[in-house]
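#random but structural
TW: two for the price of one
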Amino acid sequence: MRPYIFLLTMSFQAFAMTDAAPGAGIAQPGVDTWLEQIAYWSVEDAIPNAYTVGCGWDGTYFWITNGAGQAGASTGMFYLFDHAGAVVDSFEQNDAPGWGLRDLCCDGTYMYGSVSTAIDYYDITTYEKVGAFTGPISPNRALAWDGTYFYTSSFSTDVNQLTWDGVSGSTAATTVWSTAATSAYGAAWDYIGDCLWVTSANGTGIVDQIAADGSLIEHHTLLPGATMGGATMAEVVWPINELYVFEQGSPDAMHGYDVCPEALERDTWGSIKSLF
């Protein structure tokens, strides 16, 4: 958010506008034209500070997380947006101070998000916190779920795969699944494309596309120079497949991209690369 008075400017110096990330240090590949931007909307008219970081899709609404710090609140908030980008509801996170919950993912029943090493989960119907389990990082920033496993990372090239037993209070078994990310902040599992999309927070604007076996498919520069937060898929009508990434900028905004397999089949990747 942009300050309008001097005192507000001073408060920004005390608490950064973006969840502090490592600086850019890798070469940027070219923009991939097949990833067409199909949606864009600012969240700043509905969210009262610059602490927005994570996003998740529950099948009907986008959940966007907003931290407590700058607003002077003791806990973060969830804001729900419809597919057109209009805010429809808001409610408190459960005792999540500072930046609050980072990236989010949904299994159709619960919305998951992490604070410190805990991964909290909320009922998507009642909006109540149901429980939590422990992940490997403090905090588990990037978060995705593929139907069996969770995936998480935090400003790292490593992406961890988590096996959770479904019991609140337990600790998920963890293994390094991939080292193909550039600097992970958000993550989204693409069920139709059978791959993981990972956003970077290092000022490159790169989104990594990682295959189901953990190998790199491609580094895509979607927003050159941008710092990105969370990521989520929004599968509205099968087989329409949309990737949304959250930009921490001026304004904080959601960007939607067409990643429908009909636009570029997975088999086409090999054909294109064989030409070069």
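TW: number two ↓
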Amino acid sequence: MTRVFVSATDAVADIPDGASLAVGGFGLCGIPDALIAALADGTATDLEVVSNNCGTDGHGLGLLLEKKRIRRVTASYVGENREFARQYLDGELEVELSPQGTLAERLRAGGAGIPAFFTPAGVGTPVSEGGLPWRYASDGSVEVASPPKETREYRGRRYLLEESITTDYALVHAAIGDTAGNLVFNLAARNFNPLAAMAGRVCIAQVETLVEPGVLDPGMVHLPGIFVDRVVCTGRQDKQIEKRTVASRQDAAHRQRDGVPA
């Protein structure tokens, strides 16, 4: 049965040291920011995180990084977080990089009970051949490197074996949820959130709007409540922009002069 919690703090209170977390969102879009902030306000440490990226400096999972509460990260993209790069290069953080589509499928497969699958992504690269630095030593040498992966040929093409991912907990964000755990995601927030939710043994969902069972049209539901264990209504959070790029007034004037849309 899905349980409704009154606060994000209560919803994540039992996450222990060393727990593994699948965290939804892409960049700062659709991230469970209230749950992450509540976790950062707690004491859980040595966490293993699986997420497309690890937030930015001061936002999302970056809050946990700043407090050095993350031991290991499995991700696809980590280019917008200076503290992440520092910890990784200084040997304070273990990092497993995975192609984005592969990471998504590893989470989905974990939630579906599939232990592993073959994919062409990464064949002939260090992803399959091994040697990617997972952890650096303090002197800059590679302390832990990725192992080689099994490859096979099917129908004249090489594929490599990728293992699925399951985690102790999943933290996700949805636009609407009901008290039975059925979730609706908004546009691009539907990227990694359903997959992360499926992969977690205990899924905690923060929702902007909470409704009673029966309000949601079944055809609207993106993730059925069978995958969700806890729901907390956090309301609409402030939406952060990962990278803001604006044109100078001079550039804008030139574009207007040349008839280029702003």
